[in-house]
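2024-03-11 09:14:02 DEBUG pipeline.ingest accepted 1 chain
2024-03-11 09:14:02 DEBUG pipeline.ingest length=448
2024-03-11 09:14:03 DEBUG pipeline.predict start
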Amino acid sequence: MKQSLNNLTRKVEAFSHILENKGHAVIQQVVSTPHVLSMQCRIPGKTYFLYVGRGAQYQGFDFSTKKVPAEFKIQDRFLQFARRYWRGMKVVDIEASTDDRVLRLKGVKEATIQEMIFFWRGRDLFFAHIKYKENEVEVFRSWEGKVVESWTADQEINLKLLFKELGFADVDFGDKDTDFKFEEYLEFATDKDTEKKKEKYSKRMNTLKKMKGELVLLNEVEKLRPWTEKDLESIQEVGEGRFKVSFRGIEGHYKKREFLFDKIKGWQKSRQIVKERIQKLESEHLKKGNKQVVSKLRDQKIIQPIWNYEKKKTTVQGHQNHIEILYRNTKCYLGRTAQENDYIRKEFSKKEDMWIHLEGMKSGHMIVKASNELNLDVADFEILASALVDLNGIEISEIPIVYTKVKNIKPVKGSAGMVTYKKEKHLKVYFHQDWRQKLSIIDSYQGD
């Protein structure tokens, strides 16, 4: 889904035509999947969603009236940046470069003209944010990680100059006609196994609903048992659905009563079977965590645009992999291997920090930094444990965890990643499908 220059130009021209007719588009909300950034734009009379591929195999621009499913949303540094600087912007112009795959959106925010510029190069996305101030132009470039220069107000923002070190306009695109389409992305990226589970869940719930409806009807029929011959004298039928009793062709109220009782007697067994089936279905439902199966992305690896950051130097060589998370303004560090577990414990943990592990499983450890803002409760453990499970590739609905302060754990000499612990607490929580919406994955660091 790497969009060609021709298709990028075509999509941009189509949305530009909408802007020309309507005047502007206000960015009301910004969300993201691991692969696509979405900006909800309100144009007078209609809402559109602008989609920007975050890199790798997801590159290009699209717009649609279809929004990102809630279960696909994530939070990370790129989204935080986009929300801070682009949400609330009134977009007045959009254009694509004729020389390379560059998308430019110009608008106004806080009485200042601003631009967001996206450049897809190779497998990567680079972006810039530009503020046209009174006497200067402030330029932020993602690959530098900060505002690296200010141009004079009368200096034109030249794309070749802006992306000079990235090889702007030196690629021959040939005749490729590939495109980036958000709806195709949803179809391609959705996990098919999850969809099957979702379908099975839906069928199970429909069956349960049907069974409960039948039980209600059977209970209503059971209420007819005390009826006398006199009650049935002028009645032609009773009950509903497949539990309806018709007295047509039956003469005399004594025969009616006998016929009704025979029916009720026969349905007694059906009533018991229905009750047992309902009990079984409800038991299965509870066993699966009492949560609806939702769609899931096949590939949940978060694709980051090119950011400039310096990795922390360490004495541990070759094992600097770890995931850094921000949850309620508190940093958390997650390891997925024995070496990563040792690394985050040695490099980032202090005595008062919290250590979390999946009880009875081979899995990563998590270090939650001690914070005045975060007093961990069951809901917090549910989010953090869900991240620990998912990022370790484990699929369970009920998560057993063990946790204690870092000062209560001790590494086992000669056994990488292993620790002994004391004063621990044990807890079982349910997997939270929307954990990615509750925290931000700041970065996933890769060692040498």
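2024-03-11 09:14:41 DEBUG pipeline.report The first helix runs from residue 5 to 22.
2024-03-11 09:14:41 DEBUG pipeline.predict end
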